[in-house]
């Protein structure tokens, strides 16, 4: 490995304050260090107008149980945890991802099951749409991403992942308020939404890796 703090290293994420009030009360999963870049591999989902209508219905209903709930502004399906890369690892990491993922074709999955999640340290709660079809193809992608993560001695994805698209979030572990009756009402909204069957059958066309403020895309064939 190259020495830390190379001359000319960019520092878009350097000297970042951990004041949680500046980002909605969210708490870092790991401490910020100079030269460390938070990195995440995922499938981006571009929301259509009808999806945003469904989202508004779901968030409005869920806020009757948890008023602090906030809708997500961007949507994706994770293929990795958020891991830490040194700056000089980014280029070889992305190159290895490109080699591993280059043979994959576009595919569909269905994300139509409402589910409540918390992050590992229970500092945030999420409402998401869990995948009910297309699980096998997602596991194949994760297997390749995991191989790359292992090359860099980084944590791999969860052993039995619940693939999902997060819709809304709040600070703290409020899963108890959202599960049960609230969850049943949210599922009824999804099942009864006119465009639901068409809308929640998603074709994935690219994989993306975000590292710090850099984005890398890997088109599916």
TrEMBL record:
Name the segments for region: Disordered: 1-29
Keyword presence, Heme: no
What keywords appear on the UniProt entry? Hydrolase, Lyase, Nuclease, Nucleus
Tell me one GO molecular function of this protein: lyase activity
Q: What is the role of this chain? A: 3'-5' RNA exonuclease that trims the 3' end of oligo(U) and oligo(A) tracts of the pre-U6 small nuclear RNA (snRNA) molecule, leading to the formation of a mature U6 snRNA 3' end-terminated with a 2',3'-cyclic phosphate. Participates in the U6 snRNA 3' end processing that prevents U6 snRNA degradation. In addition also removes uridines from the 3' end of U6atac snRNA and possibly the vault RNA VTRNA1-1.
Protein name, per record = U6 snRNA phosphodiesterase 1
- Catalytic activity of the protein: a 3'-end uridylyl-adenosine-RNA = a 3'-end 2',3'-cyclophospho-uridine-RNA + adenosine; a 3'-end uridylyl-uridine-RNA = a 3'-end 2',3'-cyclophospho-uridine-RNA + uridine
């Amino acid at each position: 490995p190259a020495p830390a703090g190379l001359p000319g290293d960019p520092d878009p994420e350097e000297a970042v304050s951990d004041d949680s009030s500046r980002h909605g009360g969210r708490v870092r999963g790991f401490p910020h260090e100079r030269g460390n870049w938070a990195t995440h591999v995922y499938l981006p989902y571009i929301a259509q107008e009808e999806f945003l209508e469904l989202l508004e219905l779901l968030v409005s209903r869920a806020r009757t149980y948890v008023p602090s709930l906030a809708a997500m502004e961007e949507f994706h399906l994770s293929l990795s945890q958020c891991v830490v890369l040194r700056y000089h690892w980014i280029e070889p990491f992305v190159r290895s991802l490109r080699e591993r993922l280059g043979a994959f074709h576009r595919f569909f999955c269905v994300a139509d099951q409402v589910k409540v999640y918390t992050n590992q340290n229970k500092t945030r709660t999420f409402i998401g749409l869990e995948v009910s079809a297309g699980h096998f193809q997602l596991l194949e992608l994760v297997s390749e991403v995991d191989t790359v993560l292992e090359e860099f001695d980084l944590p791999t994805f969860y052993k039995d992942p619940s693939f999902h698209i997060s819709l809304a979030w709040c600070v703290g572990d409020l899963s108890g308020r959202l599960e049960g009756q609230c969850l049943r009402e949210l599922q009824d909204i999804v099942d009864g939404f006119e465009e639901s069957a068409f809308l929640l059958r998603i074709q994935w066309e690219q994989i993306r890796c975000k590292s710090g403020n850099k984005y890398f895309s890997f088109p599916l064939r």
